[in-house]
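Check out one such.
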Amino acid sequence: MAESSVIAIDADEQAHSEVAIRLAGIHKYFSGVPALRDVSVEFRAGEVHAILGENGAGKSTLMNIISGTLLPSQGEIRFEGRLIQQMTPEVAASLGIGTCFQHPAIIEDLSVLENLRVALPVSLFSGEPPHEVAKRMLDSVELEVPLHMRAEGLTVAQKHLLEIAKALALKPKVLILDEPTASLDQEATDMLFDRIREVVKTGTSVIYITHRLAEIRQIADRVTVLRDGRVRGAARVDDISDTDLVRLIVGRTLESAFPPKSQCASQEIAFSVTGLNGKGLRNISFSLPRGEIIGVAGVAGNGQSELMRVLAGLQTAGGAIALHGRKITQTELLHQAAFMPSDRHIEGVASGLTVRENATFSALEKFAVAGIVSRKKELERVKSIFGELAVKTPSMEAPILSLSGGNQQKVVMSRALLSEPGLIIADEPTQGVDVGARFEIYRILRDVSNSGKPVVVNSSDAVELEGLCDRVIVMSRGHVVETLTGDDVVEERIVAAAVRAETHGGEGVSNALAPRGSGLRHFLQSDNAPAVPLALVTALLGLYVYSQNDNFFSIYNIYNIFLLATALGFIALGQTIALLMGGIDLSVGPLAGFLVVVASFFINDDKSTVMIVAGFLLIFASAFIAGAVNGILIRYANFTPIAATLAMYIAIQGFSFLLRDNPDGYINNAVTDWINWQWGPFPVAFLVLVATALGAEQVLRHTKAGWRLRAVGSDEDSARRMGTRVDLTFITGYIACSLLTALGAIMLMTQIGVGDPRQGVNYTLSSITAVVLGGTSLTGGRGTFIGTVLGAVLITEVLNAVTFLGLTQTYQYLFQGILIVVAALIYSAAQKRAAH
């Protein structure tokens, strides 16, 4: 068959079932580089249609276009015969298109239940308790995990099952599965295939992307092959051979899947492990002769990953490890071993670096002359290794995340080889890698082994272990239950040893993760955990100052502390929203001062009620505009949050001085008295602040708007793929931040009583301090409004205590710094305790 030939499907076959989705003439360009070119394909109801192709062939790009995550540069999409003008995630969901992405769209900072509720329609959870509905969804994919646990605690396989549960819950008309079995064990894979067969019987069209030809034979009805962004062939699965499929995928015939194994046995032991004991490991011992590759097998979750991390020096364990006869320490392992992690998305690549930087950052000294890196030498080596591995990248300086998943994996391997290691530790090295690249990876691993360097490979694919490895250890529940060598290294023996092991019973992909003392642990892991030590510190500080000065707990002083804390509290609540989104708002301080200046022209003793009301409306209108401009600059002008809000900081401060170059415009006393109304020792405004914080907390934890806010801050890309309107969420969040700042400005107005352009600036730093004290993460996704209010109270209390103790102003800043450090240490300790 010629390389460019296309296997056509007969017209009678095409008419056999209804077309669910038809793509016609689809083109997609990234910065002028074509990812898809003139792709036309039909997906039919009640069939499984497999998409094959090498990494970078355009498979995931095509699926992202169907799911609405990407817009095509050209071409049309028809759903059930109807032209779709613009496919978006929201439109796709409304049409009944469910997608399981290669990298699951799971928000790690949300709980399992929250991940389900933020991604799925509200109607699915109506009529009965949400946790019961969610439990049924998880049961459908045999996933047993606590609904309240954070998704960050799930394994990669469990995240894939959660992603599949979300898609199946929609009862989709079209189900897209992008490499769904890449991290699943055989039991979970069989379960998934059963579910696929069930939904196909109901008329669902399943689009299935995989690199495993064996899976095509098991589950697919039709297959389409992409290469270099073009359709290279299409046929019914029964009508095409594996040889023809491979030829279409790679454009050539692969004579052999695996390179020849070591032919001459060596007596020299290159690597040995004796009595290894540690987390998930029990008395592991094995030896590896020079020139051989050893494989690690077993049912997922039985200690394989822990062993690989110990061998790479990333995890401690007792016992002895020797390289070429010399015992080496964990620190030496870190320098000697090149580790290829199974989860390239989290551990394999540095997302902020380029392709070249990701390939070389652990081997820069290899390209240095007199301590200075030679760019020419670096590029030559990178180009050479990329050529050997067939890495497809638009350029060396392209962002690493612009590459397909498989090409990212090749870059990880390139980095391992460029560092010239003493041994290679490869954890699932071909996971998500196409058939052509697998051959290159196998060949290079064999070349490394033949050079005398030990190679240890963990793989869930028994066929891969059979073809690549000279010996295999099979693990179960942290033990080595069998060691296979020579002719015994065959798929049947490997699988049999794993499933028949008497010690079997390790944590599979779907086993429960319910922790001991789950109630306390759940609280310690929650965002509100910092509120407890913060409240304790506030109380202890108050008791200490009271022991030094009896007037500290007077009604007047308590009222004064809460009144001053109210202005800071409202501004800090707004700052909390910005930080939850993964941003920051440096403009809140000058904005508060500017709004007081605006108020000083309207809310005066000689102004009418209408004018005073107009002044309040203008305060909120000005805040709305400031927040909207901040959001638009960040989302549409590509400003960073710091740059956008710093520009707003300077502009607003300038406007304040334009309006008033000196303090003037005294605030109406009646308005001040009304706002500062007192109830016992508490200002009513402070009680409003507390109520606002509680209401905001309720929204944050129990509404879709709150989950989306946290999702955007935790993982913007996953939030977008789940259908969250990220730009709108960001702009709305910054508007809410500024409106809360307006409430703080009103409180500040009553406290200073005059329009002063110099006031308010300090609230930027104070608000950030209050938010950090409250436990909100500076990286986004986690936080609490309750903690923020407590943080504002504590800061105000510290300032008040300094006065009562007769200390200088220097101590105000000293104590604030100490409090932040202490709070961070307490929170960190609580989180670590919760993790064990």
About this structure: The radius of gyration is 31 Å. Confidence is low (pLDDT under 50) at residues 1-16, 502-517. The first strand starts at residue 19 and ends at 30. Residues 520-835 form a domain with the ABC transporter involved in vitamin B12 uptake, BtuC fold (CATH 1.10.3470).
